[in-house]
Design brief:
The protein is an all-alpha fold. It has helices spanning 8-21, 26-38, 42-53, 59-71, 75-88, 92-104, 108-126, 129-140. α6 (92-104) packs parallel to α8. Belongs to the crooked-neck family.
């Protein structure tokens, strides 16, 4: 309602209080960051995402942050977020996603390095066959 009445600072104060009181409810963070982005205040949207990432949320939050940076052609910032993401959510699919991101940006050596780091990270016991398959397909192309 505050947004409809152009009371932006009041809306910010409300969102800030909400995410402070209920930091584990992702929907509030999404809406707060979306509001800032919609207003064209990308630095504030980044600050909201950064505060949120301190709580180490689930992967969708990280991917939303990465997508926002890519909308503004901030590849280096997206890469930096990916680096934190794979440590907070160290699942095979996230490492593969990161490597594919680098490949899609034309950074083939970076993609290869990520695949290699993933194999070291998971070791022989924790390595998922999906990682081997993705790495092999990457090397074939």
């Amino acid at each position: 309602m505050e947004m409809k009445n152009k009371q932006i600072n009041h809306a910010r104060n409300i969102w800030d209080r909400v995410v402070t009181l209920l930091p584990r409810i992702n929907q509030f963070w999404f809406k707060y960051a979306y509001m800032e982005e919609k207003l064209g205040n990308i630095p504030n949207a980044r600050r909201v995402f950064e505060r949120w990432m301190e709580w180490e949320p689930e992967e969708q939050a990280w991917l939303s942050y990465i997508k926002m940076e890519l909308r503004y052609k901030e590849v280096d910032k997206a890469r930096s977020i990916y680096e934190r993401f794979i440590l907070v959510c160290p699942e095979t699919k996230n490492w593969i996603c990161y490597a594919r991101f680098e490949e899609s940006q034309g950074f083939i050596d970076n993609a290869r390095s990520i695949f290699e780091r993933a194999t070291e990270f998971f070791g022989d016991e924790g390595l998922d066959e999906k990682l081997y398959i993705a790495f092999a397909r990457f090397e074939e192309s």
